[in-house]
């Protein structure tokens, strides 16, 4: 190949190189435009995503606050329950002691009542014997009184007869 041909070919290659550089620049600009467009779209997407995440974060913050309030209420209720349980346990222990004291006192009173019952049963038997003796004595007195009544009646008749006789004598 001749120098001229080589020069021509070199010029053609330079033109092709310039053309390719131009096309490359155009493509590079297009790539940059697309990247910028994609970045803008991605930025818009991320901005929307960020807004949604911030909204969700706000919702979660409200839920967390509500859960903390509920937790505090439950903690307070638990503390109140523990205190009430402690008070009830103390009251139960006091009532158990009082019940034991009452059971002991009840046992003492029951023993006293049994002694008193035994004593009263014995006294009742003695009184029954005395009543029996008094009934026998009363029966004797009633019999004696009946005899006395007959004597008194007989004496009254005799006194009446004496009076009648005196009255007849005086007449």
From TrEMBL:
This is M protein repeat protein. Keywords: Coiled coil. It comes from the Bacteria. Residues 17-171 form a coiled coil.
């Amino acid at each position: 190949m001749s120098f001229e041909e080589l020069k021509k070919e070199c010029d053609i290659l330079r033109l092709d190189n310039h053309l390719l550089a131009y096309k490359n620049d155009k493509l590079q600009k297009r790539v940059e435009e697309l990247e910028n467009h994609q970045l803008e779209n991605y930025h818009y997407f991320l901005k929307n995503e960020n807004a949604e995440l911030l909204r969700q974060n706000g919702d979660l913050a409200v839920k967390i606050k509500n859960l903390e309030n509920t937790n505090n209420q439950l903690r307070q209720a638990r503390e109140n329950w523990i205190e009430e349980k402690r008070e009830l346990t103390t009251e139960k222990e006091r009532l158990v002691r009082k019940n034991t004291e009452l059971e002991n006192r009840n046992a003492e009173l029951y023993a006293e009542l049994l002694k008193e019952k035994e004593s009263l049963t014995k006294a009742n038997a003695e009184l029954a014997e005395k009543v029996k003796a008094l009934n026998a004595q009363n029966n004797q007195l009633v019999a004696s009184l009946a005899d006395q009544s007959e004597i008194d009646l007989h004496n009254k008749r005799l006194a009446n007869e004496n009076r009648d006789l005196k009255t007849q004598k005086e007449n």
